[in-house]
Amino acid sequence: MLANLALDDYRDDAERFSEEIDREYYLHYSGRQESFEIEEIYERHAELFSRAAVEELRAAADVAEGDERRRLRYLLDFAFQGHLGQALKAETTELAQLEASLEVDAGGEPIPYRAVPVALANEPNAERRAAVESARDWLLAERLNPLHRMVLERTHELARDFGWASYRVACEELSGIDLGDVASQAREFVAATDYAYSAIADPALERAGVPALGELRRSDLPRFFRAPGLDDDFGRDDLVPAFERTLVGLGIDLGGQDNVHLDTESRPTKSSRAFCATPRVPDEVYLVISPVGGRDDYEAMFHEGGHVEHFAHVDPELPIEYRRLGDNSVTESFAFLIEHLTEDPEWLVARLGVTDPAPVVSHARAVKLVMLRRYAAKIAYELELHGAAPPLNAMPARYAELLAGSTRVEWPRESWLADVDPAFYVACYLRAWALETAWRRALRDRFGARWFESPEAGEWLRELWRQGQRLDGATLLEQALGEELDFRVMADEFVHSPV
């Protein structure tokens, strides 16, 4: 068992590693730095992720109780995922640098690999979109998937090395989340929304100028999410000011937050996927977004802004386990909560001056249902992929089958590895959507439909945010509202609300 002094040293070193690795991720994926120097960072902190550290933390967590057990389990998860990161740092570096260097040639000007989603979102011609995605998928299959597969196979091998039957079993033990239960609830959500799916999605798809379900291709989805017909309601120049005004209503002065940094500049190698980087929680937090124009920018900005405000308000006196680690369903729920404002009719009128919010609301509702059904399929797929003996050669077809079956969108198989986040993060997203529904209902009940204009609502949120991720999502919900984490609250919003 780790001695107290050694454990304190471990926590201090974990803090230093987290700061260095998060800053490196920020610099590279924001496009500020071409190199991706994570190998050196892992080497400097190699003892954090040694086999001995993982085994000692596992033994200590097994006999600990209460708060100490929770803290040790969070550290164990950190150590094991870091062990994987250290073992795979060369492949991860090669993948990142290859992604940053590749260009997609579909005729015309070459497109940076990472900029393809932006290009698809802004391309009005469906056949051109399909050609660009096909060229991207070819690069993915030929250049990136061999590395992705090496990472997957080595990840599975390392989990078995520690005595776990599979990577799935390891993740369940480390997170404390019953992944089978999440998948079961997600499956029930899909069944509950089957009847309403086309009625909600098809009108929005038609208004966006893309095919209906059944004919829709994945290359059409970025254009659908982009919703160019709604551009007049979502001015690019108002993106940051709208976020600032929203925070002011909650009693938060973004300009006065010295710990928060916005990165909205466009750069050639900047990731098209918005993200929040947290080198020091709560003292140094970044919101990174690559604007493409329109409503999609607002969703991304407000989602990552929810993360930023959560981490920026964490109690600095909390130990690293509760400031940086724990159940990411919690921070994702706050990200979804702030993001949801961009589809709230009251907010659209009050903050953007939208005269008729109905088209925005119906579009956002359709997008969310597509995403929820997609993630329901993803968790089913990932449970198979990370099971005890997955037939890897059959998994690309299985991926395409499950995704297409749930979304009713033609789905290419090439993304069978690139569409998988580490440690079953898919479960965090699904749980977070359910948590967000509960937070939103509580805010409306307590502070009214315009809760975003209430400093008291802001204080209620800040009290939750100050806890970091000390509690897992289900426990936080039970303590805050006396409710259970249940996906039926999400299904009710689609089944029992007007179409």
Proportion in β-strands? under 5%
Largest sheet: 3 strands, mixed
**What Rg is obtained from the alpha carbons, in whole angstroms?**
22 Å
- Oligomer status: single chain
Category from helices, strands and their pairing: mainly alpha
How many domains in all?
2
| CATH architecture tag of the largest domain | Orthogonal Bundle
Q: Helix and strand string, N-terminal first?
A: HHHHHEEHHHHHHEEEHHHHHHHHHH
Overall geometry comes to globular
Query: Any low-confidence stretches, pLDDT <50, length ≥5?
Result: none
What percent of residues adopt helix (DSSP H or I)? 55-70%
Trace the largest sheet across and list its strands: 3-5-4
CATH topology of the largest domain: Neurolysin, domain 3
CATH class of the largest domain, named Mainly Alpha
Extended strand count: 5
Number of helices: 21
Distance between the termini: 57 Å
Report the average pLDDT across residues.
94
Structural features, described:
The protein is mainly α and 499 residues long. It folds into 2 domains: 4-101, no CATH class; 179-495, Neurolysin, domain 3, CATH 1.10.1370. It has helices spanning 4-29, 38-44, 51-63, 66-87, 89-101, 116-122, 126-161, 167-175, 179-207, 221-226, 239-249, 295-312, 320-324, 329-340, 345-352, 358-385, 395-407, 425-447, 455-465, 473-481, 488-495, and strands at 103-104, 111-112, 260-263, 275-280, 284-288. The strands form 2 sheets. Strands 3-5-4 form a 3-stranded mixed β-sheet. α16 runs antiparallel to α18.
